[in-house]
Amino acid sequence: MESTSKYSEFASPIRNGGKASFDVHVYFDGVSFQGHVPMIYLASDGLMKQQHSEQEVKFMKNTRQAIIEKFPELIVYDVHDRGIGPHPLPMFEVDLFSPAQFGAFIPWLAINHGPLSVLIHPNTGDSRLDHSQNAIWIGDKLDLNLDAFDKVEEMDEVARRLQDVVGKVTDGVEEH
To answer: 9, 7, 35: which is closest to 22 by C-alpha?
Structure first.
């Protein structure tokens, strides 16, 4: 059987080469184990945080460690202890770079995710679309804060305008 690039590269517009093609977000929320409701508290840094059940944290840590051991070529990030950006709950992230990694890791995670919710999304350059319409879920689907992307887009626009101004100022200085 002849091999084609569709087995070694992701379809356009999914990013290939260098940066992650797919992000995998593994969430934990404190409600998954025996009806435990997490306690919400105000931390010393002024942020609202959740206290999670020991069972849930142990399961999440064991799952993360198993990923690190079974898939050493993947990038596995540290655990966020609260929601961040569009992500409403604490989680950790895993980056996938090739169809081979996707094909090996996602079936394993589908079988071993337990009570954890998992978001899998491509990186096409349109974060809002990638986290919504292009997303794949394992376990319970969560409501993401897609409005967080509006803030990022606004900041990107401010950065572009600032870069234009700096470029014009720099051009004017070089002319003199």
So the answer is: 9
Taking the C-alpha atoms of residue 142 and residue 132, their distance in angstroms, rounded to an integer, is 11
Name the packing angle between helices 99-112 and 54-70 (round to 10°).
150
For residues 130 and 120, give the distance between their C-alpha atoms in angstroms, rounded to a whole number: 9
Phi-psi region of 138 (alpha: psi -120 to 50; beta: other; left: phi over 0): beta
Per the CB < 8 A criterion, the answer to whether 115 and 33 are in contact is yes
- SS3 state of residue 150: helix
Comparing CA positions, the residue from 72, 70, 29 lying closest to residue 53 is: 29
Task: Note down pLDDT in tens along the chain; length 176 residues.
Answer: 555 667 888 888 888 877 889 999 999 875 444 444 555 555 556 665 555 567 778 889 999 999 999 999 999 999 988 888 888 888 999 999 999 999 999 999 999 999 889 999 999 988 889 999 999 999 988 888 888 887 655 555 556 667 777 766 656 555 55
In angstroms, the CA 123 to CA 49 distance is 29
Closest CA to 53 of 34, 27, 69: 34
